[in-house]
Amino acid sequence: MTEPILRVHELTKHFPIRRGLFGRASATLRAVDGVSFDVHPGETVGIVGESGCGKSTLARTLMWLDEPTSGSVTFDGQPVSSGATDLLRRQMQIVFQDPYTSLPPRMTIGDIVADPIRIHGTHPESEIRSQVNRLLTEVGVSAQRAGQYPFQFSGGQRQRIGIARALAIEPRLLILDEAVSALDVSVQGQILNLLQDLQDQHGLAYLFISHDLGVVRYLSDRVLVMYLGKIVEEGPAEALYAKPHHPYTQALLSAVPTLRGRRSERVRLRGEPPKPTSPPSGCAFHPRCPMAQPICAKETPLLLPSGPGRRSACHFSGQLAGNG
Amino acid sequence: MPFPDFTGELTSSDQAPDASAPAALPVRRKSFLRQFSKRKVATAGLTGFLIIVAMAIFAPFIAPHNPLQQNLGDNFKPPMWKDGGTSEYPLGTDPLGRDLLSRLIYGARYSLAISFGAVIVGGVIGFLAGLVAGFYGRWADTLLMRLGDIQLAFPFVLFAIAILAVSPNRTVWHLIVVLGISSWVIYARVVRSRVLTERSKDYARAATAIGASRMRVLRKYVMPNVWQALPPIALLNLAFFVIVESLLSFLSLGLSPPTPSWGSILADGRQYMMLDPWMALLPGIAIIITVITISLAADGFADLLDPKLKFGAFRRQPLKTSTPDIDPSGERLPLLSVRSLTTQFPLDEVTITAVDDLSFDLGRGQVLGIVGESGSGKSTLGFSIMQLLDAPGRVVDGRILFDGADLARISNREMSAVRGDRMGMIFQDPGNSLTPVLTVGYQLEETARKTGKIPAKEARTAAIAALQAVGIPEPERVIRAYPFELSGGMQQRVMIALAMIGTPELLILDEPTSALDVTTQAQLLDELDRLRRERDLAMIFITHDIALLADFADSILVMYAGQLCELGPANEIIRRPRHPYAQALLNAVELVDAPGTDRLAVIPGDPPDLSRHLPGCPFADRCPHAMAVCRDVEPKPVAVGAGHLSACHLHTQSTEDAAA
Amino acid sequence: MTSYVLQRTVQMIVVIFGVVTVTFFAVRLVPGDPARLMEPPGTPESVIKITREQLGTDKPIPEQYVNFIRDFVRGDLGTSFRGSRPVMDTVLEALPNTLALGLISMALTTILSFGIGIVAAMRPNGWFDRIALVLASIAQATPGFWLGVILALLFAVELKWLPAVGRTGWKSFVLPVATLVISLMPLQIRAVRQAFIETMGEGFVRAGRARGLSETTVLGIHVMKVAAIPLVTLIGLQAGYVLGGSIVIESIFNWPGVGTLALQAINQRDFPMIQGTVLVIAIVYTLINFLVDLTYAALDPRVKY
Ligand SMILES: Nc1ncnc2c1ncn2[C@@H]1O[C@H](COP(=O)(O)OP(=O)(O)OP(=O)(O)O)[C@@H](O)[C@H]1O
Ligand code: SF4
Ligand code: SF4
Ligand SMILES: [Mg+2]
Fold this sequence. Notes:
Helix content of chain A: 25-40%
Shape of chain C: globular
Largest sheet of chain C: none
Order of helices and strands of chain C: HHHHHHHHHHHH
Bound molecules: adenosine-5'-triphosphate, iron/sulfur cluster, magnesium ion
Strand order of the largest sheet of chain A: 6-7-8-3-9-10-12-11
Distance between the termini of chain A: 31 Å
CATH class of the largest domain in chain A: Alpha Beta
Strand content of chain C: under 5%
CATH superfamily of the domain at 87-299 in chain C: MetI-like
Number of domains of chain A: 2
Largest sheet of chain A: 8 strands, mixed
CATH architecture of the largest domain in chain A: 3-Layer(aba) Sandwich
CATH topology of the largest domain in chain A: Rossmann fold
CATH superfamily of the largest domain in chain A: P-loop containing nucleotide triphosphate hydrolases
Shape of chain A: globular
Structural class of chain A: alpha/beta
Number of strands of chain C: 0
Radius of gyration of chain A: 21 Å
Number of helices of chain C: 12
Helix content of chain C: over 70%
Number of helices of chain A: 11
CATH topology of the domain at 87-299 in chain C: MetI-like fold
Order of helices and strands of chain A: EEEHEEHEHHHEHEHEEHHHEEH
Distance between the termini of chain C: 7 Å
Number of strands of chain A: 12
Structural class of chain C: mainly alpha
Oligomer: heterotrimer
């Protein structure tokens, strides 16, 4: 296999919850709690999980928009640190969820797309105009509209502009944080196709974060499932969807409404995700897990190999992987 | 008079995070003046103010006399329209025979100069302090904001008075500095809160992600969105200073005499109140006019930046026309029968037809699913049936027969008897649908009592039972909770309990699970399914996710641009959609759902613009099958199966055409 | 809640300490020697020296500050330079008059503003709303001191219906209260109106209607409870207006309150008295805002620590 372009090791991001007059930290919110994974060049890694499981914090921490509490990130073999984010931001870019807040409202879209080129000086000033036109055309926005402002564009077009901005300095890895979640299905399809075309042309790697399991499956080669700040399962997309090795993945998949599904046959979860300020003991999933045993409340299961290219964090993943 | 007074309104609206709704479009500079000039009152205010400023600047050319010129022979002249007045002194003279009109004009000079100066001093200090506090945060933030707190905890005019009183001599500069410093907190707070909001928006994050330095993020990205908030505040501040300056000179703490100033003219006038009331009246009128022109202009600016208050409160007006006799069939009507329903939002320049000539029926115990893209009018349809449209929305045509009563036409009293008791509605955002300051129990009991079906004494028991019925595990605990203490899923269950306590026959659910996680959504759907079977409840289930309806709805209505696209039995529509839009919609879902697909067949283009009502099929621009006729003639729904309608020309054209 | 009260109490003490400090330095930072300013020009140096000793301004500033704080904690604000009474006694005597005027005005303002503001909010841009807003704009542009003078001119001098000065009977309240109420109302009417309009657009209002609650219940309980919360803060701010404005209004109507005292002291350059009145007014204001914050916390369950 090729060298991974991004290597994440035991990444952790905790937020102190401050209260009181003197702002002492009275609790810790473990938004991302010891996450490790790799992304290889040209590959699409999907991350799924429910709201609050730490997906977006992970994205922001990887981009060094928030400094991690501990753990390490290696980009292209080079360790990233607060003083050394240049390489990272040259080669890794991010697209956000909300098309209405992710573009600065008072800059023209031409200016928005040009700014990364100016900052990194990847092209001389004289070429910027043609670069911007090329980028806009590539994402399907008319280059003649470069002088217009974001509010003159629809949600889908804005998302295209956000992608153009991210592509401006020709990164090798793109983080897509719920990049199509705010869009209507018809427009969502357009953007998904665009992403695939871009990947084919530029050999981009994607880290595709979403709560929508269908979209993640469609786009990803490999999928990570997160629950309460931790990765609970990892595997090749098709295999993981076909046969989850973790009860949470199982429940998640079966909760997704499908056109052919029969709801009565589904696995149902009890209760709701606990607060990340007070995660349950042992396996954080045990209060809701249909398979939970006494050991689950005591011992935290490790994320261990459970099949070819697969890892799962459950005391009973062997059972799930074996039979059924 | 302390200083924070006039900012109450501004800061409160300013701290609210920008609604991300497309309605709150940012105003661009070029169109700014044009938009402003549309507001006649604001323009009048601004013009009036500019005239006053011009008079002040050109005082030496306008004023008929030297304001300091004493003319003891002519003292106490009344204004020219009174007996004894002369046109030489249009507004009369003061005890020293100085011309009042000239003194007033020169008074404007000092008053405005001091006020402008103070605004600049306060604005600049406040702006910088706000930027530093907001952007760099940490100790600088804490220090500056605590300083501001202490300053605001102090009726500052007192302080100004004290300082000016003990200063041996007072010049324009003294006044500017003292007034200016007193107001920096206002600007600093607004700027800081704006910076905090803006810098945490995704576009500022994106700027950091593309490698912009902190300075660049601040200068190029954040700042342009911050200073916009300042003009209305600065104008109000200016108006306030005009009053304070005159107050200070009234107390003889302003500029040293004989410099003319509105406050000192008034103070003189007060001594001779009985002899010559005009001297006391006129400067006050000058101040009032000046301040009013400034505040009108300020209101205009504020309105432009925050157009929220334009439309008023909810006000239902029953249609005055009689119920149209659309299909007078003798057979028994279903529970709900909607015919030719048309709902519009008349806005300033355009009228949006959000629901356009829509008809459907719904029987008891049946579930009708409504799907469509954002803006296709699904919610508006729900609100039309509930008769809860936001102003300026109105049902303009058609009828909504609910158990024989036309909801579009019955009186307000009758309608509110229908709501809750016979018909309930659940909304997308449960957090915003419960009153935040009342406990869950209070809201349930209040609703229980209102129905009249439950004796007051049993309201509490009924409330607990209602919570149990929607699968809430610890109803006794939840009943004492405030809504914010519950998770989204719990809040939505409480909403359902509230709707069910009146035992309605029809429940309208507007995207009830869109804000929830899939696992919670699945639980809630189970709950709803059980309720409707147990209680023979009819439902209108609005969603943008057609897959949700597959196992839940009896029939499905697909909407596009406010119109009926396709309506039919759920399994028919999901298995064999007829309308090209419905087909494309299902395709999109299907392909993402299924493994191993290569490329999505997508609908090109953007959703339609409802404010332009073009002839022909609204889907024509995006339709792969569009024909010439589609652009000219609006397709009407035609039967394509038992209880199955589709509005497309393909069904009426010959089959060869369709295949083409 | 208890911990919140504790916390706010600590905060309030810090603010009062800040206020005391600011007052102390403000009076001393002004260029010039207070002792010299207090005495008429041409007073011999020996007399000024005695004055200086009486004021304590001959000592170094840090020592003065420590003494000042110590005396303040003991409730000693010094001795008035004109009349030689303890400043504290004089101020405490005048305070009830100021508070009576302020409380009556605030109460009246609140009642009237809520009434007018709510009716206006019912039909934004309706005739009532328009008239209310125009009148509010005019009233807001009217300087309070001018209004006081004009009202006195009209009702006391011309018509002779009401006394113009002093505190005599209930009639003597009418003019100062009217002046204050007219100055206070515009802002509060606008705020009430805006709070109600905004709250009426919230989802829970629509949800309340959707379950059939009567318009009276929706507006009278749900909207009222939510909209009133931010208005509590405004009332706190307006208390500042009343206290600060008391200097002017009281002096126009010669009302025997702290404001009149302060203005007299300013005219007589009675430094201990200036210091004392300013301080007492600021402390009363801080206390009012402390109460306002507690009320806010009690009304809004979301403020919990
Ligand atoms: N209060 C309003 N004022 C003006 N226009 C409105 C208002 N409410 C809705 N509209 C317009 O009516 C149309 C239909 O909106 P509606 O909210 O009913 O769509 P929807 O199908 O519910 O969309 P979504 O899926 O986003 O909820 C839109 O064009 C919208 O802009
Ligand atoms: S470890 Fe136990 S509780 Fe956790 S997922 Fe596995 S079976 Fe469930
Ligand atoms: S009427 Fe024409 S444009 Fe419209 S959906 Fe049918 S074929 Fe397409
Ligand atoms: Mg909607």
